[in-house]
Amino acid sequence: MAVKTLVIDDSPAARKLIGYQLRQLGCELVGEAETAAEGLKLFNQLRPDLITLDLMMPNIDGVDSNALVDAVRRTAPEVRIIVVSSIPFEKLRTEFLEKGVLDYVVKPFNDYTIQRLRVKLRRAFPQLLTIG
Asked: How many Å apart are CA 62 and CA 17, to the nearest integer?
């Protein structure tokens, strides 16, 4: 069974890259959103297993991102969230990890980031163990 994934990022190029990387790890991209509001709507419709969330998008900031993560964690605690950011700020990373997100990764991705995600995703979704 594939891991249904929703990618929320205002950049079409970032959505394409993230989607590609996740497909390589065995995930199925079921939706893309360019705003947090659109992402929340798609989350409620699609009920994905995994969400990637860009922190800095139009009409959203760190406070709004926290609220979105909290809303997902409250209504569907089994859904895994990966926060994706261009901000390598350790305090933010720690705050999100304490909220129960699967990971906080910094763009652009490098080989280490992808390998770390592969390990974390396989732990969270055992069905991915058979993927490359």
From this structure: 23
Which option is the CATH number for 3-125: 3.40.50.10490, 3.40.30.10, 3.40.50.2300, 2.60.40.10? 3.40.50.2300
Q: CA-CA distance, 132 to 130, in Å (whole number)?
A: 7
In whole angstroms, give the CA distance from residue 51 to residue 121.
12
Instruction: Please check the confidence at residue 132 and state whether its pLDDT lies above 60.
Output: no
Q: Are 81 and 72 in contact (CB under 8 A)?
A: yes
Q: What is the pLDDT of residues 4-21, one digit of tens each?
A: 999 999 999 999 999 998
Cα 102-103-104 angle, rounded to 5 deg? 145
DSSP state of 20: H
* 1/108 Cα distance (integer angstroms): 29
Residues 84/8, Cβ–Cβ less than 8 Å: no
- Residue 57: is its pLDDT beyond 70? yes
pTM: predicted TM-score of the whole model, two decimal places:
0.89
